[in-house]
Amino acid sequence: MLSSSFVYADDYFNPSLLLNTEGSVVADLSSFESGFQMPGNYKVNVYVNDDFVLSKDLNFQKTDKSDAVSGGLAPCINVEFLTLVGVKYYELPNYEELKNETCIDVKQYIPEAEIVYNFALQRLDLSIPQIWIKSDARGYIPPSEWDRGITAATLNYNFNGSHSDNSNSQFLLLDFGLNVAGFRIKNLSSYNYYHHKPSDTSTSKWSNIQTYAERTIVPLKSELILGDSNTHDNIFDSVGFRGVRLYSSEAMLPISMQGYAPVVRGIASSKSIVTIKQNGYTVYQTNVNAGPFVIDDLSSMSNSGDLHVSVESMSGEVQNFVVPYSGVPVLLREGRSKFDVTAGEFRSGNREQNKPVFVQASMSRGMPQGFTLYGGTQLASKYQAGLLGFGKNMGNWGALSFDMTHANSTLADDKDYKGQSYRLLYSKSLNQLGTTFQLLGYRYSTKGFYTLNDVAYKNMERFELDEKFDEMGNSYYDPSSYYNLNFTKKGRFLFNVTQDLRDYGSLYASINYQTYWNAPKSTKTYQVGYAKAFKNFSYNLAWSLQDSYNLVNDKNNTVSASISIPLNAFFGSKDRVKNDIYSNTNYVHDSNGGSSIQTSINGNLLDDRQLSYNVVHGHHDENGAFGTAAVRLDTRYGSGGLGFNFTDDGKNKSLNYDLSGGVILHRGGITLGQSLGDTNVLIDTNGAANVKIENSNNVYTNRKGYAILPYAENYRLNRVALVADSFNDKTEIDVNVKNLVPMRGAVVKAVFDSRIGQRALITLKHNGSYVPYASSVTEQNSNINGMVGTDGQAYLSGLGQKGTLQVSWGADATDSCIASYEFDQEEYESSIANLELNCI
């Protein structure tokens, strides 16, 4: 008789084969035999079609089978989670059934979908066909994941000064912030001090540039400002205000438009101080060497408002010119809208102006076929203006916008004026030719057209200019204090172009040509430059012309030529990154101040290039020989510089100095760091000191384990990582990467769980024998845990100098023991301590 039966079997590995010691035993491994991890809640980074979406706590349950990657766990997903990551579940067949399910089998409803969980990386990947994904899901991070940050106070400081035989001067810029309950309170203020020794006269002034409270309005995707600030729109010229402003924030959208900021170029005849003012306030000041200079990191408070640039040289020569600052063509994507509403009191740093109350509103809308329509109004008691315009994306032909403004004005002479202004803006990048038109624009205004800024003036004109003194004691008059409303602006032509010549270098040119009604002449600024780099050296040529109609500026032509040689290439240095050494020679000739030639040696030292130096010697036709010696140190707590300028005859000497950095006050104390950005990350490693932050320049944690990583990106994924090689022998961090999505202006906190203490290899015995293989070991005070290997050895890290270990090898209470330990001083200071303990 034949019969059949089913036999069930499973692979089995005898755990005793793991041991080679006679008499040794193995702990209960039933929970690990199939490769399963413990189910529960885990915080994971969620990716949809390889794009990061959010970090979220999810519940994971056991699956029927396991693998080495997932640990036998699968996530519990509901419709709220699918909505959060952008899955259009409501378009799925039988989607009503999904609403009541707590753990949805996504593959049941979307067969092409795939879910992969990596336990070690705590990463959950969802592969979903694009047809089931919302169009804005790619690159979109939902507002629920935005981090408004912690309660903290911030301070950015920038201090510089100069001391010479004839004068002393100091400039301090303070940027203070307080973040609390979702509000961001900001104050930007400056202090200027000047002492003229020959006349023994001094001037000092505190200026409140702006003070305001800001809050993000998430449902409107906008920002609310209360206080002193500036309008920030491409439609009207920027003005300062004291009041309220509500405006759309493009940064909250999945793909934001990049703001426009001008590049300030010029040529200094010798060591000079460059000062930039906007709307009557000093917004930038720095020291430059002789030759062409470029300021491309300007962060202004508004999108328009001309920049008044002053270059005060060591020889006493003062250059003044204007850099136009206005927006690029006004364009929005189809279906997008943007608004900006401001109401308050006109605010200016110019004492010649009144403070009329005004309202400003503007609206833009993206239309089909690449068009954008926009308009706005400015209303005050003596000023009414309306604007209408359109923008057009012309594809290969670039982008342009055109608008017309009509204004009714009553000026200081109590007369009424009417006029129009027409503006055309154009931009284009010819990538295949290497050409970029940053801005090409023209504005024509009729004779009776005035702006709100013009109407605010108390008088029609001012001819008495402010007398000032340079650091050598020479007097000059500040042309920015001159104005004449009878000379109204007529036509302005703006042109900026950069041309990449590939193997033959690069070329740039800019033109600012302004004509006036009734004025004796126009204002012209021309700049042209060429640069070329070879294998071991580079050179550049530049020419500029400034010619203004005002009372103190004469026409000034300036040309320069410079060459830079990396000396490392000739010395055979193997480490050019740490120790760059350059030789620079520069020649400058201008139509007013003669000629100068100078040679300098500059470079960087130390591992992170923290120390930089510059030694200069040159000759000027009128002032003779001169020299400079300067050094700068960039540290994790800020940066500082010191420079000494002198002439060979000893008559003119000056000492320059500067100090800058950032401070964050938080619950953990005060943390010093480098200069802060608008949005910053406070790193907390729970006491791990001297840990380097990845992809940063000289940023390390302090002795309390804190560090500041400045310039985080708003509403975008910011990856913060610690360099594992920088951990000391007493520090271990399981996960050294965090992903953060900060809101605008926030101080977000990246917390890393660290174990700081002694590393030890401990041999454990119980009743004369080694404790069973795979027993769990837990330090009772710190909950640090590990597992016993062969011969009763367990490796633990982060241990205190003394403590108690709980050892367990089974489910019964009798399958455990306790062992106390204490390291002597020599053991505690060693890299890894070795102990043998009797477990009772």
Automatic annotation (TrEMBL):
It is a multi-pass membrane protein. One of its GO terms (biological process) is pilus assembly. Residues 761-824 form the PapC-like C-terminal domain. GO terms for molecular function: fimbrial usher porin activity. The keyword Transmembrane applies. It is found in: Cell outer membrane. Pfam families: PapC_C, PapC_N, Usher. Keywords: Cell outer membrane, Membrane, Signal, Transmembrane, Transmembrane beta strand, Transport. The keyword Coiled coil does not apply. InterPro entries: Fimb_usher, FimD_plug_dom, PapC-like_C, PapC-like_C_sf, PapC_N, PapC_N_sf. Residues 12-161 form the PapC N-terminal domain. Its main location: membrane. GO terms for cellular component: cell outer membrane. Belongs to the fimbrial export usher family. PANTHER family: OUTER MEMBRANE USHER PROTEIN (PTHR30451), OUTER MEMBRANE USHER PROTEIN SFMD (PTHR30451:SF6). This is Fimbrial protein.
